[in-house]
């Protein structure tokens, strides 16, 4: 009889302690979340907020960028001024074919005589761009003479080009005809 009683008491005690154990864990979680060291749940909440904030900021930025991109296209149309919109489009194809590649034979001569060290077709290096020389409208013979006996006074602001008397006339004629085609 006593054994049965104590056994049932023990069983009850076990059940109660189990119940207390469960409830106290739940309580601790709840307490932690609001007041205590429930750092994990708070970290998670903060992370979710951070992510959603970032997403919102990115959406705002891309919306602003889209607005910006749309603005220049919309403005000339709105003002009826099509020239501003047409100008860059017209410039681009005009500038592209102007920069012709240097023909292989001319390029070989410019390399051989080291003209490329100081001259480029369209860009100023040490000497003027050949496209600038072309504007002077020299005859090929004049160019031969100027390579053999440069006249630095033609190009104020540039250092004087050294006389290149060793460069064959025939080579300079080929170069000169190409310069005048620029
Ligand atoms: C060390 C640099 C240098 C090298 C190499 C050089 N040039 Fe020049 N060249 C210049 C400079 C600087 C000028 C402008 C000043 C001058 O004319 O003296 C010039 C000017 C010219 C002019 C314009 C002349 C004028 O009076 O308008 C021609 C054409 C020219 N160079 C062709 C050539 C050719 C072709 C070669 C290769 C055979 C060559 N240059 C090599 C530096 C150089």
TrEMBL record:
It comes from the Bacteria. Residues 58-96 have a biased composition (Low complexity). Residues 58-98 are annotated as: Disordered. Keywords: Electron transport, Heme, Iron, Metal-binding, Signal, Transport. SUPFAM superfamilies: Cytochrome c. Heme c binds at residues 115, 119, 161. GO terms for molecular function: electron transfer activity; heme binding; iron ion binding. The keyword Cell membrane does not apply. Gene3D superfamilies: Cytochrome c-like domain. Residues 90-182 form the Cytochrome c domain. Residues 1-20 form the signal peptide. Binds 1 heme c group covalently per subunit. This is Cytochrome c domain-containing protein. It comes from Dyadobacter jiangsuensis. The lineage of its organism: Bacteria, Pseudomonadati, Bacteroidota, Cytophagia, Cytophagales.
């Amino acid at each position: 009889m006593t054994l049965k009683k104590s056994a049932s008491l023990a069983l009850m005690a076990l059940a109660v302690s189990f119940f207390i154990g469960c409830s106290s864990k739940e309580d601790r979680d709840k307490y932690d979340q609001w007041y205590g060291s429930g750092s994990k749940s708070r970290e998670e909440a903060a992370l979710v907020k951070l992510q959603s904030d970032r997403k919102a900021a990115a959406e705002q930025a891309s919306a602003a960028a889209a607005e910006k991109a749309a603005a220049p296209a919309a403005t000339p149309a709105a003002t009826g001024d099509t020239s501003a919109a047409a100008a860059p489009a017209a410039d681009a194809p005009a500038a592209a074919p102007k920069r012709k590649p240097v023909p292989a034979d001319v390029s070989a001569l410019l390399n051989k005589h080291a003209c490329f060290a100081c001259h480029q077709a369209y860009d100023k290096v040490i000497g003027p761009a050949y496209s600038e020389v072309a504007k002077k409208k020299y005859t090929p013979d004049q160019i031969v003479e100027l390579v053999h006996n440069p006249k630095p006074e033609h190009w104020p602001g540039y250092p004087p080009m050294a006389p290149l008397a060793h460069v064959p006339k025939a080579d300079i004629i080929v170069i000169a005809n190409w310069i005048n085609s620029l």
